[in-house]
Amino acid sequence: MTAEPAANTRTDCERLDREDPLRAFRDRFRLPEGLIYLDGNSLGALPKAAATRVAKTLDVEWGEHLVGGWLKDGWMALSEKLGDKIAKLIGADDGEVIVVDTTSVNIHKVLAAALLMRPERRTLLTDSGNFPTDVYMAQGLAEFLERQHRVKVVGEDEVEAAIDEDTAVVFCTQINYRTGRLHDMARITAAAHAKGALAIWDVAHTAGCVPIELNKIQADFAVGCGYKYLNGGPGAPGFVFAPKRHHDKVRQPLTGWLGHANPFEFGLDYRPAPGILQWRCSSPPILGMVAMEAGIDDLIEAGIEPVRAKSLALTGLLMRLVDERLAGHGFTPATPRAPERRGSQMAFHHKNGWPIMQALIARKVIGDFREPDIVRFGIAAPYVRFVDIWDAVEHLRDVMASGAWKKPEYQVKKWVT
Ligand SMILES: *Cc1c(COP(=O)(O)O)cnc(C)c1O
Questions:
Q1: Quick check: 251 and 116 in contact, CB under 8 A?
Q2: Which of 62, 290, 352, 400 is spaced 20 to 30 A from 250 at the CA atom?
Q3: How many helices (H) and strands (E) does the chain have?
């Protein structure tokens, strides 16, 4: 499949769907009839098997086994089990990823751990394309450390040049959540190491849709999110990647009892658990984790390379159709055209982006809007079809040509966008 398939009609798109090697996966998701869901980068769709699995956990495991479920149903081992599965999608080994807490909380842990590994350095370096919570968490940590540290935010293209002898950690998100532009992780990581700094990556928006090689590039730590392309469900826990080469040296600050070497000894001195387990803090959120497993299993079965190939074909098609069929309507691509520079979303600048997206949503084409002027479509290859892209563009064309976006009700801003 090429990054920009030659589809010029809806019939061409139907043919691409018939030939799609991943076509069987869509049926594993529950998707409301008539809905075109292009927001899998914000909240992935529900795998049908997740619903069954959660129901069983409630009914049999919690309902019948009660506290016995921790061992009998493998609840206590679930954080590592899911971590080992996610590891396959992000280029990590067994025992290097654990599903715990949420992305923001995990950011605190990895940043603090990195600062402890570089005690003589004072700068946390990030870029202005990073997701706000990542920058906020870094600022909160620096504040907590009595402002002896500083968070330096530079432009997306200035990260490498800004690394210096005071940089403790370079901390970026692989993708710009607005534009969908990818960083060159290997290059930035190597540049950080060349200056003696550590490199931490947030792969929240790319795990499950872009092949990631955390060990190959020698990333020091990484965090990510369960509810986007991993399809783990609303508020699903996040994950931490910590490579084996750091396990013995590293300490993370949220030293809850379940990260202790032996929590059930109930002693009063903290000793970290060996390996990846010290990254756990609290009792694991079993229902949330049970809901995650099916989505991750599907991605492993589909294979991240075929998922990436289809995703590039879908985003390439969307970009070309908007070029051709919405010319003159004021959309400018925010996402790089080069396939290797983009993730699994397509974003366009438009000065009326908010009401245009509301008009699309009213027609059951679900994308989202990001300040200040970004119309964003997240493309989850396991369940989005080529005809969905075609139909979404036709709806967009109609919204523009008819002026439907000008309706007063579409101008009102909402709290969750
Ligand atoms: C979605 C996302 C988050 C979300 O953080 P939570 O703590 O799960 O709310 C964080 N960072 C990035 C880069 C994201 O894309």
A1: yes
A2: 290
A3: 13, 15
The residues facing 153 across adjacent strands are 126
Q: Judge if 318 and 368 occupy the same domain.
A: yes
Q: Two tokens at 239?
A: 């994950």
Question: Do 283 and 388 fall within a single domain?
Answer: no
CA of 225 from ligand 1 middle (Å) equals 6
Nearest atom, ligand 1, residue 173 CA: 13
Residue 349's domain is classified under what CATH number? 3.90.1150.10
Residues 309 and 296 in one domain: no
Which of 104, 133, 203, 292 for a ligand 1 pocket mutation test, highest count of atoms within 8 Å of Cβ?
A: 133
Q: How far is the CA of 19 from the centre of ligand 1 (A)?
A: 35
DSSP secondary structure string, 208-223? TTS---TTTTT-SEEE
Tokens of 242: 């910590």
Q: Do residues 323 and 288 share a domain? A: no
* Rounded CA separation 103/133 (Å): 9
Within a domain: 350: yes
Of 310, 288, 286, 289, residue with least CA distance to 299 = 310
Which ranges constitute the DSSP H helices of 145-263?
Answer: 159-162, 185-194, 244-247
Contact 336, 346 (CB under 8 A): no
For the chain, the C-alpha Rg in angstroms (whole number) is 22
Ligand 1 binding pocket (C-beta < 6 A) is 102-104, 131, 133-134, 173, 177, 202, 204-205, 225, 238
Distance 188 CA to ligand 1 centre (A): 21
- Report the catalytic residues: 131, 202, 227-228, 376
Helix (H, G, I), strand (E, B) or coil at 346: strand
Is residue 115 located within the same domain as residue 250? yes
Q: Examine the fold and report which residue of 282, 301, 320 is the final residue of a domain before the chain moves on.
A: 301
Over residues 60-113, the pLDDT tens digits come to 999 999 999 999 999 999 999 999 999 999 999 999 999 999 999 999 999 999
Residue to probe by mutation, ligand 1, list 111, 173, 225, most atoms within 8 Å of CB = 225
- pTM over 0.90, yes/no: yes
For the CA of 235, the nearest atom of ligand 1: 8
Two tokens at 191?
A: 């540049």
- Residue 63, in any domain of the structure: no
pLDDT tens-digit map of 327-356: 999 999 999 999 999 999 999 999 999 999
Same domain as 381, residue 346: yes
User: Residue 268 is part of which domain span?
Assistant: 74-301
